[in-house]
Amino acid sequence: MASSYCCSRLLLQSQSSRLMLRFSPFLATPPTPSSLSFSSNCHVSSSAQATLQQQHEQQPLPRSSQLVALEYADLNLSYNLDLGHVRIRQHVNPLSSSFSVPAQVPDWNHAFADPTLPLMVDIGCGSGRFLMWLAKRTPKERNFLGLEIRERIVKRAESWAKDLALDNILFLFANATISFKQLVESYPGPLVLVSVLCPDPHFKKKHHKRRVLQKPLVGAIVDNLMPGGQVFIQSDVIEMALDMRNQFDEVETLKHIEVLDPAMLCDSEGWLLSNPMAIRTEREIHAEHEGAKIYRRLYQKQM
Predict the structure, then answer these.
(1) 59-97 per-position pLDDT tens digit
(2) 261 an active-site residue?
(3) Which of 82, 114, 167, 200 does the annotation list as catalytic?
(4) Low-confidence residues of the chain: pLDDT under 70
(5) 221: closest CA among 301, 118, 110?
(6) What's the rounded Cα separation, in Å, for the pair 42 and 56?
(7) Quick one: angle between helices 64-71 and 282-289, nearest 10?
(8) Rounded to whole angstroms, how far apart are CA atoms 192 and 118?
């Protein structure tokens, strides 16, 4: 009788832990049975423990796509969009002639309700969920510009932003290496934040020239960033993270946030221990779900 009662308690606690996993998007891995708390006066037979262990292991873990949906659930995005049946490529060659034409500078007065607000630019914004989440929370404080080289993804992001009635966000089909400088130089307000989050690493050495963060783009970012403005970089690929870090570490006018704010903790190698943006990107969620480490740096421009 006691064994049956305790087994029921174990099952309830195990189910509770799975519910925590399901509804907490920040929980990347489920608690193990050994981490569950049991009453010391509750005797459970070895067979009951084995049954519980088997049932626990048989429960399917949430896919990373489900965790993405949970993290961005409050956006309530529609996925019934008519974008045709053309496959969206995950990797493109930015040096291709098809990406050599600079993006047209938009009419900023038409693009944003208030084009004088401080601007954040996300280079390689992907689906745009990350920027939309931020834009929804700061409607009168900041404008957001997402640059993405895959046009079909941009069209979907534009549809989502329209559905959300956001007037402080704009997505552009653009090769940032070519278009960033003229876009931000034409913007009426100050550039306060630039993010480059999990860009395509282009692993082969002969393809490193395809990486988005090249010396001219680094220069354009630093030159146009207002004093006190910030640059946030991150990657789940250490080689890519080091490549970006080395380029920004060389800029004398940039200081890593750890130097300016001791509360921003880093590990022994100088990588931020946590995400300062309050929301994870989709790639970040997928990578952490697979157990990968995210390498982050946040720089601030000095006066």
Answers:
(1) 666 788 899 999 999 999 987 655 544 344 456 766 566
(2) no
(3) 200
(4) 1-61, 80-91, 93-100, 202-204, 207, 210
(5) 301
(6) 19
(7) 140
(8) 6
